[in-house]
Structure of Lipopolysaccharide biosynthesis protein:
Amino acid sequence: MLTGGRVGATVLVTFVLAKLLGPHEFGVVAMATVFITVAQTILQQGLFTAILQRDKLTPEHLNAAFGVMLISGFVVGGAAAALSPVWALANREPSLTTVCLALSPLVLMQALAIVPEAVLRRDLQFRTVALRTLAASVVSGVAGVVLALLGAGVWALVAQALVNAFVGLVILWTVCPWRPSGGLRLGAIRDLWKFSMHSASAGLGSMLSSKADVILTGLFFGPVATGIYRLAARLPDMLVDVTVRSLQQVALPSLSRLQHDRAAFGRHLTTLQHLGAVSGLPLLGVLVAVGGPLIEFLGPQWDGTRLPLTLLCLYGALNAYGVLLGPALQAIGQPAKLAAILWTRGILGVAVFAAVGALLHDAGAATQATAIALAAIGMQFAMNAASVWVTVSRAVGGSVTRFLAPTLPSVLAGALAAAVPWLFGALGLSLRPPLLTLVVYGAVAGILAGGVLWVTDRRLRTLVRRKLGGRLSWIPLSHPRTGRHVA
């Protein structure tokens, strides 16, 4: 719920900034952010995951991890700043140099946050983590909007990112009880490094596979197409963040506790995937329904964004089936398999997106963003199919059919929600202005998706009744048609 509040605040800020700014500003910051993300990924993945996964963790391990992160933060952050002109030259966008330089402190702030955040997540203190991100999102959002109103342009988005990281870092160190003490011990570093090497490789592969679309869009098409694609991708990404990725935060530490019981591990992973589908797929369907009036409301500078948005909602739905597989492989002690999957996807993505870039170099920005979205969908489908088989069938030893079957009601609910604009058109109903259309489409799609999900998903009804107990004793646990009792 706290993550939902954070994402809700972020969505509202994104709408306001998109209304005030345009694709070029969003594109420049997206191209700079993906460059900084490479540096941050180098820092985060290895030791962060090792702290979460390790059975026995001592203060020496935490001290060693913090010392390594502090040194690495200065080194990697300095390298990112030094390479900023090279990135600007590669993208043929001179303004990227100053934007990348301005964002380079994010690397050091990320390094300072890794160990205390890992400590809180290892202890399952997700309320504390979510409060931190919610507060940082609200404060940075206000700062970004105020600067945009004052005419700061692209620097409003830069300031938003810097304020978000700084406020989050201050809150994190305030609420985390752990403090560094003592020096670096090589033995502790070696203990963590054994696991973190494969995990860091998986993190770099994940970064390449998840950011190849934005990287190649910027390199081949420039900031306008990148801005259109990034806005279209950001909205589905936010919904996946608040739903499936919220479960991803819990998945690694909770699955790690079951790593020696494969049967219980498989059941828990299936439960997490079902919850992710229930919370994510219907909402993505609602976003498809409101996409048209939403883009119209943002203004003519975003013309051509609707189709990429629709396609990237489908991409987000496919992504909902892949988000939990990485933590599952890490929790079961097989990060090398995860690294192999992610690097395969990343290399394949670079090849596919580069081919699209070469073929459509002279096309319009909206067409270019749409082509990248189509390529991303095809790749995501192929790689997710392989990843599910490797993780569920080979690594866990479970049934792929049993893993996927509980999510079918959510697929149906999302598809029916997405069809609401078609339903209104078939009935000859037309609404104006776009804000009213957005509200009506969203309400109808949400009610339709929720009703269908409730009627068809027995697992959901059982879960709700078990959680709420006697307060909802009137909810039947039997199927509405067969009459079979769920329990």
Remarks:
- Confidence is low (pLDDT under 50) at residues 478-487.
- The longest helix spans residues 262-298.
- The chain has two domains: 1-184, 205-456.
